[in-house]
């Protein structure tokens, strides 16, 4: 494979490409490198490649012409990649895809980046090495060269080494050990010295699953799991992430469609469905808030039906879910109950289909170490005084769209899932 690096700092690559496996791969002729310096293609008398940005602002911009000329020297088969924070994330899957190419051209930016017209004029794909900003594309290009290079056949001593590594299987890798067998009282897991290949393979698989669940649950969500993996994950006694989250369904004070303050009636569907969500996600509690005594009695009767007698024997799962329900008069009572049970006043997180600008990530930060009460309104939504009195207001679901009128039950499910960033 040929890497053609377009950079104003070719010397940057000297040391990294002359040691370790990359240098061996060069010697074996598996990879070759060429460097194209845009300065050599600048028609400017000082070989400048940058200029001031239109519209003002700090920093310089890499001019389009020298880069376009540099690109025109590439072979016809070159796939041109531009290192850029806005690009497609460099993943193991992308590295694998790129390892099948004959030539990769890597465009390294400096300053504020490139004149935008370059991408309009040349067939360029932007690639990012992460959500951070580097001084220049050279370090990113080196990451890409290593990640892609090591997937080329014969690059590594044993080709299979790449197959078992992190991300190749869809998981993070299991832990490794070498001699001594015991160090500072820490022993190498016995199974690894058993010589039993089947047990070792199983132990490694399980360790991979646990590490991935602990460190990167996001990738576990898309990992290819076998039935045995799912059984293993289910059996893990892991901490339920939802217990700091509580939900309140408010029936007063809410608005009707003319903006008047009203009290709504309880619905059996809301009672059941949000209770089931609360149970599924392991929430701390689900509060039905209504000041109407008849409605409170109705809620308790409905819960009682499933918690005792025939309902309990007919459907014990439903009983478990409805056990989360607490009937209170006002939102303040829910707040006080959580404070009494947890020892901390919860952060009140209000919701509306029309307003709110707190992201789920910000709210999830609260959830890490304090109780949070997610407040949902019935009717046409919570009264402004409830929204204003809250510690935060979650951004509406589908806030960019014209229509986002969900039932409160659906909204509760989506919000809980987003807040807990659940993986499965
Ligand atoms: C200082 S950065 C420019 C950042 C640019 N103004 C922005 O905010 O997106 C200069 C160059 O470094 C490279 N670079 C910086 N961060 C990168 C990243 N995360 N992935 C890939 N390339 C990056 C790009 O080639 C970029 O043109």
How are the SSEs ordered, and which strands pair?
Layout (H helix, E strand, L loop, with lengths): L1 E5 L13 H8 L4 E5 L13 E2 L9 E2 L1 H8 L7 E11 L2 H7 L4 E5 L9 H5 L2 E5 L8 H13 L32 E2 L2 E2 L9 H19 L1 H4 L6 H9 L9 E6 L3 E2 L5 E2 L5 H13 L4 E5 L3 H15 L1 H6 L1 H7 L2 E4 L2 H12 L4 E4 L9 H10 L2 E6 L6 H6 L2 E2 L14 H13 L4
Parallel strand pairs: 1-2, 1-6, 5-6, 5-7, 10-13, 10-16, 13-14, 15-16, 15-17
Antiparallel strand pairs: 3-4, 8-9, 11-12
Helix pairs in contact: 9-12, 9-16, 14-16
The structure holds S-adenosylmethionine.
The site of S-adenosylmethionine has 18 residues, from β5 and α5.
Please give a quick description of this structure.
The chain is of the alpha/beta class and 424 residues long. The protein has helices spanning 20-27, 64-71, 92-98, 117-121, 137-149, 197-215, 217-220, 227-235, 268-280, 293-307, 309-314, 316-322, 331-342, 360-369, 384-389, 408-420; strands spanning 2-6, 32-36, 50-51, 61-62, 79-89, 103-107, 124-128, 182-183, 186-187, 245-250, 254-255, 261-262, 285-289, 325-328, 347-350, 372-377, 392-393.
Can you put this structure into words, describing what you see?
- With 424 residues, this protein is an alpha/beta fold.
- It has three domains: 2-162, Alpha/beta knot (3-Layer(aba) Sandwich), CATH 3.40.1280.10; 182-235, Trp Operon Repressor, Chain A; 245-420, SPOUT methyltransferase, trefoil knot domain (Alpha/beta knot, 3-Layer(aba) Sandwich), CATH 3.40.1280.
- 37% of the residues lie in helices and 17% in strands.
- The protein has 16 helices and 17 strands.
- The strands form five sheets. It has a six-stranded parallel beta sheet, with helices on both faces.
- Strand 11 (254-255) and strand 12 (261-262) form a beta hairpin.
- Helix 9 packs across helix 12 and helix 9 (268-280) packs parallel to helix 16.
- The chain is flat and about 85 Å long.
- The mean pLDDT is 95.
- Residues 83-85, 108-110, 112-113, 128-130, 132-137, 140 line the site of S-adenosylmethionine.
């Amino acid at each position: 494979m040929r890497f053609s690096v377009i950079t104003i700092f070719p010397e940057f690559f000297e040391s990294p490409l002359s040691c370790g496996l990359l240098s061996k791969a060069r010697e074996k002729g598996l990879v070759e490198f060429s460097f194209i310096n845009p300065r050599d293609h600048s028609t400017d008398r000082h070989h400048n490649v940058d200029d001031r940005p239109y519209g003002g602002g700090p920093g310089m911009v890499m001019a389009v012409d020298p880069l376009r000329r540099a690109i025109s020297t590439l072979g016809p088969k070159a796939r041109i990649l531009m290192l850029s924070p806005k690009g497609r994330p460099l993943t193991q899957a992308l590295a694998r895809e790129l390892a099948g190419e004959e030539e990769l051209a890597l465009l390294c930016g400096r300053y504020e980046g490139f004149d935008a017209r370059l991408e309009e004029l040349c067939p360029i794909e932007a690639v990012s090495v992460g959500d951070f900003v580097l001084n220049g594309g050279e370090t990113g290009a080196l990451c890409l060269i290593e990640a892609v290079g090591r997937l080329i056949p014969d690059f590594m001593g044993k080709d299979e080494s790449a197959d078992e590594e992190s991300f190749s299987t869809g998981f993070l890798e299991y832990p490794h050990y070498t001699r001594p067998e015991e160090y500072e009282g820490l022993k190498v897991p016995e199974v690894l010295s058993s010589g039993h290949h089947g047990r070792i393979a199983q132990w490694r698989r399980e360790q991979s699953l646990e590490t991935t669940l602990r460190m990167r649950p996001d990738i576990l969500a898309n990992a290819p799991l076998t039935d045995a993996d799912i059984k293993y994950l289910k059996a893990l006694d892991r901490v339920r992430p939802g217990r700091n989250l509580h939900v309140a369904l408010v029936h007063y004070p809410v608005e009707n469609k003319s903006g008047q303050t009203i009290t709504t009636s309880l619905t059996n569907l809301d009672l059941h469905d949000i209770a089931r969500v609360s149970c599924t996600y392991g929430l701390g509690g689900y509060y039905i808030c209504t000041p109407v005594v008849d409605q409170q009695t109705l809620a308790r009767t409905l819960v009682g039906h499933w918690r005792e007698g025939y309902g309990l024997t007919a459907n014990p799962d439903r009983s478990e879910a409805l056990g989360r329900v607490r009937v209170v008069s006002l939102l303040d009572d829910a707040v006080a109950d959580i404070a009494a049970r947890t020892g901390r006043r919860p952060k009140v997180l209000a919701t509306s289909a029309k307003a709110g600008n707190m992201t789920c990530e910000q709210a999830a930060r609260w959830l890490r170490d304090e109780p949070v009460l997610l407040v949902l309104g019935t009717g046409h939504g919570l009264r402004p005084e409830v929204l204003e009195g809250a510690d935060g207001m979650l951004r509406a679901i589908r806030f960019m769209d014209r229509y986002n009128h969900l039932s409160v039950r659906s909204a509760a499910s989506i919000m809980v899932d987003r807040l807990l960033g659940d993986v499965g």
